[in-house]
Model the fold of this input.
Amino acid sequence: MIRIGYGMDVHRLVENRDLILCGVKVPHTLGLLGHSDADVATHALMDALLGAAALGDIGKLFPDTDEKYRGADSILLLKRVMEAVRQAGYKPVNTDITIAAQKPKLRPYIDQMRARLAEAMELEVGRVSVKATTTERLGYEGEELGMTAYAVCLIESL
Done:
């Protein structure tokens, strides 16, 4: 059996925070605000995986009201999501993520992002796609107020 999942996440850009995307620290003057490390792309991926396996969402597994997740490394949370997906009888086939951000340019970091996610998901890097796009200065992403990430993933029975 194969199943598909979709995830989307948004975080506000603020000063005095690191910008973490797909587990990679990206140099920038602003970072994403959130209870954990606010890795918007990894959060979208986790929701896609959980949705595909009908296991809810990251808010259910890692509520932002729980202090143990304050500042949490989203790659470690992704590994826990992978355990839950496997316990439900599935494994990932591939994933595709798009990050919407006006700045910074993400192309120099894409290969490292793909490698971090592939390792956490125990997939070949060729099964992990990460892309970035601007919004042509439109909307909150274009005004550099926040970032959005979208993810799809395909899972199959073990």
The longest helix spans residues 74-87.
